[in-house]
């Protein structure tokens, strides 16, 4: 297909923007170039900010010697066009003003944070880039280095639109192997994968589903349901062919039901359709006997009927136009649209109700009704086949009707039509004023034809069965026998602006919700949900999944309860799964718990991974989301991540037992690392250099150290691990390995579930040291002693000093253990940073190992000065305390000190990732609406704190009198005071002093930040009854015991007194 046709904007977009194209090679070699004026056209666009759009340029506009150059890939052209602003409007100014996305996208380039440079490329600029690459390839340069790429891109895009830093980052994203050169196909591949992942992430954000299976509700026995209608209060009204009308509550409980048709002389009436006159509390029923019958909607009592219609009313609609004015519309089996305009509706209906009855209903024939001055009757011949759907939309003041007749499949028409002034003047001059009766006969004769300017006709293959209007999007959605859902601009009938192809059977029903979602259902009972903007399918449920069986007779979407009601032999109700409304004050970075995150200093990104296998990339300097991709490890959680030495590739490990290498800037999976025979969960990973070769190290539940050789020359997607070290096989870990840490050039440490720490020599593969968590610090033998975090103090490890600790690990009861790698007594020191003895879940140190940041399971971060700690010649029991604050509500699984910027990165299972200054000042949470500037402290959140932390009871401060200064506070049960000295019962035996009160309080209360076990103990103790003796210090208050009485407590018999004492007392009080 020629490129010109492929990139030509659709007529619905209304944004035609063209420009002349010159060769980038000529621009690089010649100062001037004669422009080709063949494509010079007038530029038209919306008023207001102009969007960058693709120019309709063809390859033929290039020089003749480049005719044989292959075209850019069609997918790239298609993706660039897809990224342009989609609109169903052709210039209605009211729609332009309502569209906030236009202004948002137009102004985004003016903001300080522009995002990715590749996201602003137009098709014209891409064509220039392609020509430049092809020109260089023709001259013998198959690839370009960073300087040539910088010159080409800035020339094509413009030096003012691309800085050197942005171009260099784009080059490094494409050159993920750090070879120093890229080719045109590398550039295209990068863009293709990035656009595909952007579409996937956009779809994930718009996910919407129905709760399956559908809720089933039995309907009264009889004929099929013809129509379902809902009132303002979400009450449902159903009507069946035999005249059975039923009212249902929003919970689909039957409220009342009645057969409105009465069988007279064995003659049956058949219901064709019905509508509701809400202001007048009436139901209008169209019958197969060409009648319109009115019933009271409160009690189904017959009110009146209009008989003698010209054709059978197949589709009914009602519209309240003004005070005491309305319209009744119906489409018939002759393809006509009939309109009854009623004025003084209340008086007119009451007048007709007094007319003689026919079949127990006051009856008036249509020819008699239109003689009234309060009635106007209009009949338009619109379709060549019967009308399948008809609706009046007050927002556009027009009637939309559909038919199976292909030339007139969908028609948008006026009510009255244009006034023919010349015809009226001619009638006045000739005095051709007919009588009312003659006029009525003419009106009931041949239907009128609308003028050409009074209607818009859409020709659709195989006609239209159903349609829906979205005024918000200025679009009409149609469906029919050809199984295609089409989206139309209401004022452009030439071609649709979108086509949705996925149904395998004719479309039975479509609806557009206020959330810009299209709901469709086909005759094979398949339900789909589409996104209006992206025109993608978000949800599909077949008959087997939804449980909808039988032939569909009608459908209705209930906006109030957000549910789709489908009528077959039963009523099937599909409830939309609604997301919980986001808290206005709570900010989350992921939908699921964040299990790991890390700072990338090359691109200055923060990459985070969550439990739902989603990888997100954040801009470190602003907090804005840059990119994301999902299903990284299928349905398995991502447990760990790291970067290679170049910082251009991401390595992730998951519960599926795989390690994967990514170009995380576009979501491309480069390699998968796994074993053939086992899929044990990967718990941690690292990137290391061993013998001048680069390896990826993975540890986990297989209890082995897995080494994967990382080579740029390996073209196999799946890689297998290297043979295990012999020491690892013979004397390695006996339990699951939970953590790994490395210290260049040759040290590697691993820790396991049984509290064992092994230090390895990566060069030889031998075990250097083996440590065990001391049991003396554990609460009991049965306590968990797993080691989940270990780090090297690298500045100490490289000195090979036996008197200093160079390895730190966590342990039970919130302990941190400092180990020496070159001493006979390896455990140098231990202390508890957490005041509540919570398990330390993450550890980080500054670059010079002067300060340690430790985070616990309660979300607290503790800072200690360890510069002179854990040395054998020092006597410090605990390092110098510096600061602490609460960073998260849940366990902090990631802490990282970014020394270049003096920033602390933290991630937690409370679904948040936050930045802090090293002093604990709150900068912000990734995902918040307001961006920050990392070098501008005025943009930080400080002195604010996260809202959820502020309101959490555990974050409340404690009075200094109640706060225990010791970090080893124990819980003292109230049962310990049950055997108190009886001498304290003497009210004069002791004097109460302030020291006594303080001592008693310290015995009874708890620490500021309790662990999970302490929380449980607190809840148990708070639910107990306080013993009546009270605290021992308050025994000066005199009290008396009540002796137990084991006698009979039956009600006394007052009859022996001979008088009612209560009545006697009452009479005595009255006499006084």
Automatic annotation (TrEMBL):
This is WD repeat-containing protein on Y chromosome-like isoform X1. The lineage of its organism: Eukaryota, Metazoa, Chordata, Craniata, Vertebrata. SMART domains: WD40. WD repeats lie at residues 464-489, 500-540, 587-628, 631-672, 730-770, 885-919. It comes from Thamnophis sirtalis. Keywords: Repeat, WD repeat. PANTHER family: WD40 REPEAT DOMAIN 95. It holds the Pfam family WD40. InterPro entries: EF-hand-dom_pair, WD-EF-hand_domain, WD40/YVTN_repeat-like_dom_sf, WD40_PAC1, WD40_repeat_CS, WD40_repeat_dom_sf, WD40_rpt. The keyword Repeat applies. The keyword Repeat applies. SUPFAM superfamilies: EF-hand, WD40 repeat-like. PROSITE patterns: WD_REPEATS_1, WD_REPEATS_2, WD_REPEATS_REGION.
């Amino acid at each position: 297909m020629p490129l010109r046709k492929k990139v030509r904007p659709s007529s619905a977009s209304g944004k035609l923007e063209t420009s002349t194209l010159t060769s980038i090679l000529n621009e690089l070699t010649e100062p001037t170039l004669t422009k080709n004026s063949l494509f010079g056209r007038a530029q038209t666009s919306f008023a207001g900010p102009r969007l960058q759009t693709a120019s309709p340029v063809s390859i033929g506009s290039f020089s003749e010697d480049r005719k044989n150059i292959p075209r850019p890939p069609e997918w790239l052209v298609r993706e660039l066009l897809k990224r342009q602003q989609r609109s169903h409007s052709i210039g209605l100014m009211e729609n332009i003003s309502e569209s906030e996305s236009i202004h948002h996208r137009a102004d985004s380039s003016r903001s300080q944070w522009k995002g990715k440079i590749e996201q602003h490329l137009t098709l014209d600029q891409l064509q220039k880039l392609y020509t430049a690459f092809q020109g260089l390839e023709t001259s013998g340069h198959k690839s370009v280095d960073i300087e040539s790429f910088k010159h080409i891109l800035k020339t094509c895009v413009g030096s003012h639109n691309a800085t050197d830093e942005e171009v260099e980052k784009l080059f490094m994203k494409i050159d993920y192997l750090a070879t120093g050169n890229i080719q045109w196909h590398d550039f295209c591949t990068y863009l293709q994968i990035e656009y595909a992942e952007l579409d996937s992430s956009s779809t994930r954000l718009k996910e919407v589903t129905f709760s399956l299976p559908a809720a089933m509700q039995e309907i009264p026995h009889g004929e099929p349901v013809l129509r379902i209608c809902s009132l303002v209060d979400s009450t449902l009204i159903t009507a069946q062919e035999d005249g059975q009308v039923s009212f249902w509550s929003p919970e689909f409980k039957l409220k009342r039901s009645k057969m409105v048709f009465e069988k007279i002389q064995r003659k049956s009436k058949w219901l064709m359709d019905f509508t509701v006159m809400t202001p007048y509390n009436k139901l209008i029923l169209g019958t197969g006997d060409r009648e319109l019958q009115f019933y009271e909607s409160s009690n189904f009592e017959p009110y009146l009927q209009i008989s003698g219609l010209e054709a059978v009313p197949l589709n009914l609609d009602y519209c309240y136009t003004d005070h005491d004015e309305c319209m009744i519309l119906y489409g018939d089996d002759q393809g006509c649209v009939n309109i009854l305009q009623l004025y003084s509706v209340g008086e007119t209906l009451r007048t007709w109700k007094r007319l003689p009855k026919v079949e127990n209903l006051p009856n008036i024939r249509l020819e008699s009704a239109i003689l009234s001055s309060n009635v106007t009757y209009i009949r338009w011949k619109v379709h060549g086949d019967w009308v399948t759907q008809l609706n009046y939309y007050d927002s556009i003041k027009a009637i939309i009707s559909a038919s199976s007749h292909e030339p007139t499949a969908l028609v948008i028409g006026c009510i009255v039509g244009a006034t023919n002034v010349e015809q009226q003047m001619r009638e006045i001059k000739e005095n051709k004023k007919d009588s009312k009766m003659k006029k009525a006969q003419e009106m009931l004769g041949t239907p009128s034809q609308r003028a050409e300017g009074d209607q818009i006709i859409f020709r659709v293959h195989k006609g239209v069965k159903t349609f829906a209007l979205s005024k918000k999007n200025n679009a009409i959605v149609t469906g029919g026998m050809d199984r295609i859902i089409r989206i139309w601009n209401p004022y452009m009938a030439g071609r649709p602006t979108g086509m949705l192809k996925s149904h395998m059977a004719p479309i039975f029903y479509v609806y557009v919700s206020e959330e810009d979602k299209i709901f469709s259902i086909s005759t094979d009972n398949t339900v789909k949900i589409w996104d209006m903007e992206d025109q993608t399918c978000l949800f599909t449920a077949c008959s087997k999944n939804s449980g909808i069986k039988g032939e569909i007779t009608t459908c209705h979407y209930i906006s109030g309860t957000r549910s789709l009601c489908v009528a077959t032999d039963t009523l099937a109700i599909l409830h939309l799964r609604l997301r919980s409304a986001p808290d206005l004050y709570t900010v989350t970075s992921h939908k699921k718990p964040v299990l790991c995150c890390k700072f990338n200093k090359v691109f200055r990104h923060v990459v985070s991974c969550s439990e739902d296998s989603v990888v997100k990339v954040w801009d470190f300097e602003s907090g804005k989301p840059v990119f994301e991709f999902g299903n990284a490890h299928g349905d398995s959680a991502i447990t760990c991540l790291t970067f290679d030495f170049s910082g251009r590739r991401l390595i992730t490990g998951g519960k599926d037992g795989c390690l994967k290498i990514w170009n995380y800037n576009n979501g491309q999976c480069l390699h998968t690392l796994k074993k053939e025979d086992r899929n044990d969960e990967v718990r941690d990973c690292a990137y290391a250099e061993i013998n001048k070769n680069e390896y990826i190290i993975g540890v986990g539940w297989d209890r082995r150290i897995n080494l994967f050789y990382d080579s740029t020359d390996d073209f196999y997607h799946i890689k297998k691990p290297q043979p295990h070290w012999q020491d690892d096989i013979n004397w390695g870990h006996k339990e699951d390995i939970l953590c790994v840490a490395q210290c260049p050039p040759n040290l590697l440490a691993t820790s396991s579930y049984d509290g064992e720490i092994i230090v390895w020599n990566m060069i030889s593969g031998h075990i250097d040291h083996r440590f065990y968590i001391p049991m003396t610090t554990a609460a009991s033998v049965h306590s968990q002693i797993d080691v989940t975090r270990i780090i090297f103090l690298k500045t100490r490890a490289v000195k090979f000093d036996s008197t200093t600790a160079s390895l730190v690990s966590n342990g039970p009861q919130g302990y941190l253990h400092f180990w020496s790698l070159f001493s006979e007594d390896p455990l140098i020191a231990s202390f508890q940073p957490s005041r509540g003895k919570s398990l330390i879940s993450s550890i980080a140190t500054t670059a010079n190992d002067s300060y340690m940041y430790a985070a616990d399971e309660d979300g607290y971060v503790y800072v200690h000065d360890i510069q002179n700690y854990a040395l054998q010649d020092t006597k410090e029991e605990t390092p110098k305390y510096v600061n602490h604050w609460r960073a998260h509500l849940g366990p902090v699984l990631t802490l990282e000190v970014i020394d270049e910027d003096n920033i602390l990165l933290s991630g937690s299972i409370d679904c948040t990732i936050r930045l802090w200054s090293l002093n604990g000042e709150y900068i912000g949470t990734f995902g918040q609406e307001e961006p920050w500037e990392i070098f501008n402290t005025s943009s930080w959140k400080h002195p604010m704190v996260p809202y959820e932390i502020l309101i959490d009871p555990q974050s409340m401060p404690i009075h200094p009198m109640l706060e225990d200064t010791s970090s080893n506070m124990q819980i003292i049960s109230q049962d310990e005071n049950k055997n108190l000295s009886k001498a304290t019962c003497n009210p004069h035996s002791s004097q109460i002093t302030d020291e006594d009160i303080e001592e008693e309080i310290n015995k009874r209360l708890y620490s500021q930040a309790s662990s999970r076990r302490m929380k449980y103990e607190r809840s148990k103790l708070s639910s107990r009854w306080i013993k009546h003796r009270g605290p021992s210090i308050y025994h000066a208050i005199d009290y008396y015991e009540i002796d137990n009485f084991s006698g009979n407590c039956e009600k006394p018999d007052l009859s022996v007194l001979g008088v009612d004492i209560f009545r006697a007392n009452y009479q005595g009080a009255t006499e006084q």
